[in-house]
Design brief:
The protein is of the alpha+beta class. 60% of the residues lie in helices and 8% in strands. It has a five-stranded mixed β-sheet, sandwiched between helices.
Amino acid sequence: MDVFEVAETMVTHVKNNYPDDIAIIAYYGSYAQGTASNRSDLDFFFIPVTSKGYAATLSFVLNDISFDFWPIGWERAEKMASFEDPFTTIIADCKLLYVRSEEDRLRFIKLREDISSNREPSNGQVLAEKAESQLKDAYVHLYKMSSARNVEYEITFYRTEAYMILTKVFQCLALLNRTYFSTGWGKNIKQILQLPMIPTRLEALYQVITNTMSSADIRLACEQLTADTLELVLTQKESYSVNPSYPDRMKGFYEEAKGTLDKIISACEGGDYDTAFFAAIHIQDEISSFLFFAEKGYWPNSLEPNLAYQEIYNRLGFPDLAALLNPQYFSQLQAAVEQLNLLLEHHLQSQGVGINRYENIEQLQEFLNNRSTSGKLQ
């Protein structure tokens, strides 16, 4: 069977019934890459531009070959191009079958140009952040493995969770290497192992995870693989560290943080331990994270099993609010919060951060008038 005859049938159907509703029709996968076999299906998609266009969706089997004519909205296509969606290859490597207009063609070409620019070294930090997000998802499945007790169909459970971990780790590695997978899971193992930046034990751990019948070995190998990958993520993020810059990275931070600090003081005065508990831990963590960002230019990693990112907070002598929480004794926490308020404002001002503080309404009005006048002059 000529699968492209099927494709042409769908294109003709769209031209006759959805001329204003579908912008693009394209195919991807094995036929686009020249690796199709006689059992390969034709992977093709379309980009609808109206609600009516989505009605063209159709999955069917013809001559025992499956076909899936499925929609990708422009918004999802843009996410693929920006590496927010892991199926970047669908946009990057597809072949166009139909284009509604020149405007649609140019918009699609722009997506491919975005893919190329997003892979440039200058975008490495952004992709490293996205890689970290993928690894976070892997830890959910690692937790399920470590918490499992006497599960039914044990080997199936562990292999299913291991599959989820592998796909998240591999996607993390692709992002760290500023690339995407051009083939599906399983077929892309060679590409994965040839990436410049991978854990040294990747191939050995992969063989254990996919071949062993031991649930314990699967879990241990997954733990080692995620730990090794986390080390790569941390190293790569550290490579993007830049000089400290407080004025732009912490502008407006104190004014917002002060509201939380005042909330803790009010909670202490009113004996409201629950509010004090959540607000104190939150603000200490938030200040620590922003100080880290101000110093290094990237946000701390939330997967490390420690409080290393609070080192700057501690080095500055800021009080440990979390350690001072005591439902029977509020005065020490209140004093620490009042001290933190002063220390934080002083530190930010010493680093060149402007604080919008006014003594009366007239000063605020003067500031607003000056800003308005300045804006009009610009």
